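Escalated from tier 1: manganese (II) ion holo job.
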Amino acid sequence: MSKERFEDLRNQLDEVNLELLNVLNKRAKLVEEIGTLKSGKGTERFDPIREKEMLDKVVAANEGPFSNETVAHLFKQVFQASLVLQEEEKKHLLISRKTQKQDTIVEIGNLRVGGEQPIIIAGPCSVETVDQMEKTAAGIRAEGVTFLRGGAYKPRTSPYDFQGLGVEGLKILSETAKRHGMVCVSEIVAPEDVEMACEYIDVIQIGARNMQNFELLKAAGEVRKPILLKRGLSATIEELLYAAEYIASRGNSQIILCERGIRTYEKATRNTLDISAVPILKQESHLPVVVDVSHSTGRKDIMFPIAKAALAVGADGLIIETHCEPSVALSDAKQQLDLHQFAKIMGELKSSGYIKEEALVK
Ligand SMILES: [Mn+2]
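Tier 2 regenerated the structure:
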């Protein structure tokens, strides 16, 4: 064989490769279009009967030199790749980074969650009395904190534990926050309460135990208030993202995700803080992510290193349960910081540079 002929054949091969590539991608585009139509109708993407028909057709048309087995094998791979493509496309959720490149910034008045500066959400586990809220709010506000939390509806493990003050609690929380120039965050547990709650609170929290309460998620999607969505204690990252999608799909894109620890076999901490969830959530989604350092650890002694870790991996904020008198708190007494401890941790976060003094609202 002459050298020229050899070169010529090689060039032809290169061309055929490119043709093959074009044809494969042309096929992929058709598959994508079919996938979109199917998803609209809720049909299963993998259709084994249709795949068998397609394989039989190409094998019947095969004239060689490839054997029928080889042709079947090659096409099977192509079909497989198309299915993966459809799965990928399915993941283009509204909350996905693929859909929106830039970070979502949740704005509450002039406060921003997901911007340059991390936010701190502090306050007691439960709203108990006007006095308790007043003392706690004054203490945390003095540290430059502008997000006041407090539970009025408490989904407790035991039905005999304190269940919260309900609407009365929301009113106390809201009035306390206003007096101190703060915004407030509180959990809502029933879909029918979401609209009512908007009257009192600035950020509606959906708690870990309700992360897959789909009716509640839908109700949260109908209002135009920011939603703080906590990861369920046994929920995967993907499940958290789909829960957020429930809210976004109803038109409410003001969502803050919250990693709050997951259940593992480890007993040294209340839950196991899944620190890797933070950068993964930030990669997969454009939504801001905060870390609840109180419920994840249930321990005050490791709160500072955990808080630093959360901010170091890119969290947009922290939730720190704080109570003016933790020893007499009606819920989560063990893990809540007192005002002195809270001031100390804030001081440590500032001196280590994780929180900028000048960024705090005086
Ligand atoms: Mn709590």
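The pocket of manganese (II) ion is lined by residues 125, 295, 321, 331-332 (CB under 6 Å).
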